[in-house]
Amino acid sequence: MDKALFILLCVFIPFENTMLASIGGIFTAPMGIILIPLLGLKILLQYQTLSKTEFHAVKLLFAFFAYSFVLLSLFYAHYDKAFLIDRGMRFFVMVIPLIIVFLTVIKIDEKRLYQGVALIAAIVIFSFVANLVARGFINGTSPIHYNSAHAPHRMRGFTLEASTFGFQFVLAGLLLAAVYRINLLLLSVFMIACITLITSKGTLVSFLITVVMTFAVFSRINLLHKVIGIAVLAISGSIVVSTIIGPSIVNDLENYTSIATRSTAIMTSVFSLIHRPLGAGLFGFLPAMYEYGVDALNFVDRLFPRLLNFKEFASYLVVGETKSVSTKSFFFDWVIFGGLFFLYFYIKYVGRLFRFFIKNRMPYDFAILLFLVLCTSFFMSIEARYIAPFALGFLFVRYRIVDNKNSSSVKEKANELRSGHAIAPSL
After folding, report:
1. Backbone φ/ψ region at 140: left (φ over 0), alpha (ψ -120 to 50), beta
2. ∠ CA 318-322-328 to the nearest 5 degrees?
3. Closest CA relative to residue 170, chosen from 125, 212, 234, 233
4. Which of 99, 163, 193, 380 has its CA 20 to 30 A from that of 155?
């Protein structure tokens, strides 16, 4: 039963923008939401199987929920408290499916997990091909697409738009490479070509940085050759970026709002951290956007006078506005939510994973984590992206496997040493 549910979850994960969105918006848009109640119930019934670390993480989330109520009672007196509670509860509920997916993945055995990765990758690749041969179907509304494509000339697979599809496509490719140990440099050539067709600027830049950093950290060649290799990769990446997405960036600056919106939203989280270093809590997120967004907009406008189009971001600053109001980034959303508390735990645990992957020479896992961090820091929110907690769970499983092997090896050596000391006196 557990294995069948997991396989079904893997089938559903690539579908992020289904007709289920008509029920509850972005919260119910992923097809995987169908399984979340059942998976959540299974976890509750088997909570004794959670490790101490996992159980503490769940308790920490609920402690943060209580902390948010404390902040609500102390601040935001001039806001409608019922409105803030309603929105804060929505933010909290949005997190629960991600946690359930993560906890589900880390309970799966390695063999079944790898089968799930292969299944997800196959569906994502199929969606890429479908975008090439049946663009009309992919761009239109259907049971697997709640709305028509915002930009019909760009690929979106079974997701909302090009940026979300690019994120999903690369993550699926990196997971598949980790399972089958596909050469990362050869994979990079294929990925860059595919991302170019998908036309996701953020995905391309994040992937190129991932490739360069992975090469820099794990290449066994001498320092001089490594520096030359990094320089060649960096120059090649710069040429690719300037050639492929340079005109697109210029066009965005002149005619669209995404660069202005994302940069100003990120600065809003910085201003929020300065004014509320301990976080705004779940119920203070919107007030922080309304209040510190004005400061951020003025700051960015002074840096780039009359260059950026702030029309979209300005609409977020109207008190009571809720549609699309966010930093467009998991990381910076949570900087507003949790402040220094979030930064401490994020740096602690993500840093621990990076150090472990480097120490144990796990380049695939390093690349997956780095790509996740880059995308979710600068242009990707993950509320409907179940592939993100799936990938994090995948990394956790592999971390645990290698850590257990290392622990077993240390114990065996210790036993050998004790045996040697026991034999020595008899000799």
Report:
1. beta
2. 100
3. 125
4. 99
pTM over 0.70? The answer is yes
Residue among 78, 53, 81 at smallest CA distance from 68: 81
Element (H, E) at 182: none
SS3 labels along 167-180: HHHHHHHHHHHHHH
CA atoms in the 13 A half-sphere facing the CB of 117? 27
Q: Do residues 150 and 138 lie in contact, with contact meaning Cβ atoms separated by under 8 Å?
A: no
Residue 71 corresponds to which tokens in the numbers above?
């902040």
Q: How far apart are CA 374 and CA 359, in angstroms?
A: 21
Given the structure tokens 């009309």, which residue do they identify? Answer: 136
**CA–CA separation, 35 and 147 (whole Å):** 22
Give the span between the Cα atoms of 312 and 321, in whole angstroms. Answer: 12
Residue with structure tokens 């290449």?
Answer: 219
Q: What is the pLDDT of residues 19-53, one digit of tens each?
A: 999 998 888 999 999 999 999 998 888 777 777 77
Q: pLDDT (tens digit, 9 = 90+) per residue, 162-189?
A: 999 999 999 999 999 999 999 988 899 8
Quote the tokens at residue 276.
């509320």
Question: What 3-state class would DSSP assign to 318?
Answer: coil
User: In this structure, what token pair is assigned to residue 52?
Assistant: 């101490």
Burial label, 170 (beta-carbon count in 10 A; 0-12, 13-18, 19+): buried
